[in-house]
Write a structure and sequence with these properties.
Radius of gyration: 19 Å
Number of helices: 16
Order of helices and strands: HHHHHHHHHHHHHHHH
Distance between the termini: 45 Å
Number of strands: 0
Oligomer: single chain
Helix content: over 70%
Length: 292
């Protein structure tokens, strides 16, 4: 029974957001880790994300029945009722938002609200089913956790927080499209107008190349503005260069699904290593360049 409720929160997404929250926190902390603050930030953010994922499962019941990878979800199999799932989501969200509001600060709470509202309202309820631009909308919610981690420490939204937000949003575009290419038939059968289905796999590959270059350009700003050291410059660009290489060889791939799976898995490795690297690639003292 507990396993069903755990999987309702989409553990893969929880882990990814846990890592990116950690990355933002590490960059801001500059080696001085407040363990209690870190734990509260991670727990609060994870619970909010979990709440959003449960609500998403409730919304997507009809779609999930048409996709092979989601046909065994608890709500599809009716082993958990939508009402119980929504109560579960409410409790998770209540605890998570309370931790961020009372235990962290207003900035962390604000970006948790932004991430939740965009994911549940603008993405799940609206654009996922209606617009080719759904991935852009969804990327906003995915870019919120690293900013939550960062602002939990700094108590301000500065240039680094903006760069993190933009870069992690840009990263999600190729990452998400790779899943859609790999699971092309699922998305097509469910009638989801994501780029590879609504346009073409070839156009998606072109846009992947563009977004990887934008991702690299934006995040290199952390070095240019003095937030990270030369080791970040070298390692980040080396990691991104290989992702760029994978995007280029995709044009000659004999099997798009196999290529997309490799491309997707590397995107996960890249963002994980990048986020963890902030624990030692920060520049201290960091410049004080607040935006608000």
């Amino acid at each position: 029974m507990l396993k069903k409720y755990l999987f309702l929160t989409k553990p893969g997404i929880l882990f990814g957001n846990f890592i990116t929250t950690l990355g933002g926190f590490f960059l801001a902390a500059q080696g001085s880790i407040d363990i209690l603050l870190l734990l509260l930030t991670l727990i609060g953010t994870t619970l909010v994300v979990a709440s959003g994922c449960v609500v998403n499962n409730v919304i997507d019941q009809d779609i999930d029945t048409k996709m092979q990878r989601t046909q065994n979800r608890a709500l599809v199999k009716k082993t958990i009722s939508p009402t119980v799932a929504l109560i579960y989501a409410f409790v998770l969200g209540l605890i998570g938002f309370s931790i961020l509001w009372f235990g962290i600060n207003g900035y962390a709470f604000l970006f948790a609200i932004i991430g939740f509202v965009v994911y549940v309202g603008f993405y799940s309820l609206w654009t996922k089913r209606t617009s080719i631009h759904q991935t852009v909308i969804g990327s906003i919610s995915g870019a919120s956790p690293p900013v939550i981690g960062y602002t939990a420490v700094t108590h301000q939204f500065d240039v680094a927080a903006l760069l993190l937000f933009l870069a992690y949003a840009l990263w999600q575009m190729p990452h998400s499209w790779a899943i859609a290419i790999y699971r092309f038939d699922d998305y097509k059968n469910a009638g989801i107008p994501i780029l590879p289905v609504a346009r073409s796999v070839y156009r998606t590959k072109i846009e992947c190349v563009i977004y990887i270059l934008l991702f690299a350009a934006v995040l290199n700003g952390l070095y240019c503005f003095g937030y990270t050291n030369v080791f970040f410059l070298i390692t980040f660009n080396a990691l991104t260069a290989y992702w760029f290489y994978l995007s280029i060889i995709g044009f000659k791939a004999e099997n798009d699904q196999l290529w997309a799976k490799r491309f997707f898995l590397y995107s996960v490795i890249l963002i994980t290593l990048l986020s963890l690297s902030f624990s030692f690639t920060y520049q201290s003292p960091a410049p004080n360049l607040p935006l608000f």
